[in-house]
Design goal:
seven-stranded parallel beta sheet; globular
Length: 368
């Protein structure tokens, strides 16, 4: 049995953090020791769930972008704990970790791209650093994974794709979303006949809450019997005041992190997901697995996720009028659960098959 170290920024609830937790819930006992290394120096909402797994240790140590001492400590940690395989989920920022792993003699070094765009803004110095760590990732990784082809096109455009590159889609256990007709309408004081549009996702420029707010306000002016529910880290603290004194305040329900996402989703008639950038959107996949009709942005990673059949549900992420019209059309025809969407999503994102592929990567790395 092997010792494995996973590197990520922190353990607040998000697509990556939930992905790794779901994977470890199934496969943690197949490793000797599992180290979850938080490079941001903080844990988060999911930390206790990670710690409940008997052979999982959470390490919180802030790692500077260019702090050589931090990386020397990581190299020492990898050697002293006899790590057999490392996997860094932070895209280009995995480069320095891959190099540390090579110095420590680790034969299986995996960089996993979970976003299809850069994690910070662009300027001269940031571009130099980004190109540098990208080159380290390419040179010192024995496997380079992503959850979308869009990510590879962005980060490695023009590079030679070799056998190390592979896309492994997100895995979702559909059994966790089979809850029948249970929902939160009574708790949220939403009438059973109300048309509910919802969104789940942290407050972040990538999630495009500015457009979400514009669409909500326009629809509230033009449509009767329509309600909106939003949740995600820091969403309430950033958006609630926009609706507090609004005449439609009772029709917009805003929450921060929730641990009852299946119930939250099952309260919706329509899922709205206008992200500007995504790796592969767990939130959208969860809605699809429940058969919830959606309106979303037409970015490459979302098109890759939903498939050509549903391209007519997509729009440019900044096109507020088109989003408004798409949602009004869905409301007018009275959309219900989409059984074909549900079946296709359950099959395409089957967690056991996809987690098995990732597990095999962790156990069969090759030296270049």
């Amino acid at each position: 049995m092997k010792n494995v170290a996973f590197f990520l920024t922190g353990l607040d609830s998000g697509g990556l953090e939930n992905y790794l937790l779901r994977f470890l819930n199934i496969h943690h006992s197949e490793f000797n020791n599992v180290f979850v290394y938080c490079k941001g120096g903080k844990g988060g909402q999911l930390e206790n769930q990670y710690r409940m797994l008997d052979n999982v240790q959470v390490i919180k140590h802030k790692v500077g972008y260019i702090n050589i001492l931090d990386y020397w400590k990581i190299k020492s940690f990898l050697s002293e704990t006899n790590i057999d395989v490392i996997c860094d989920f932070t895209g280009n920022f995995a480069g320095c970790i891959m190099y540390c792993g090579a110095l420590a003699g680790i034969k299986n070094r995996i960089a996993f791209y979970r976003s299809s765009s850069d994690r910070f803004g662009s300027n001269f110095f940031k571009n130099i650093y980004n190109n540098f760590v990208n080159s380290l990732t390419y040179r010192f990784s024995t496997s380079i994974l992503s959850n979308s082809y869009a990510a590879f096109k962005h980060f490695f455009a023009g590079d030679h794709f070799d056998s190390r590159f592979e896309v492994i889609y997100n895995g979702i256990d559909s059994n966790n979303y089979s809850i029948g007709s249970k929902n939160l309408r009574e708790e949220l004081n939403i009438p059973s006949e109300g048309f509910v549009v919802g969104h789940t996702g942290r407050y972040n420029p990538a999630k495009n809450h500015a457009v979400i707010v514009q669409v909500i306000k326009k629809l509230l002016e033009e449509e009767d019997n329509i309600y909106f529910i939003l949740c995600g880290n820091n969403v309430r603290s950033n958006l609630a005041e926009l609706f507090l004194n609004d005449e439609f305040a009772d029709k917009v329900k805003i929450f921060d992190y929730r641990d009852d996402v299946p119930l939250f989703l099952n309260t919706m008639d329509l899922f709205f997901f206008p992200s500007i950038t995504e790796g592969q959107p767990n939130s959208l996949i969860e809605a699809m697995i429940m058969g919830i009709p959606f309106v979303a942005s037409d970015i490459e990673s979302i098109k890759e996720t939903v498939g050509e059949t549903y391209f007519d549900c997509l729009s440019d992420p900044l096109d507020v009028p088109k989003f408004v019209n798409l949602i009004k059309e869905k409301k007018k025809i009275g959309v219900g659960r989409d059984s074909i969407l549900k079946m296709a999503a359950k099959d395409r994102f089957d967690h056991r098959r996809l987690f098995k592929k990732f597990y095999e990567k962790l156990n069969n790395g090759e030296i270049r």
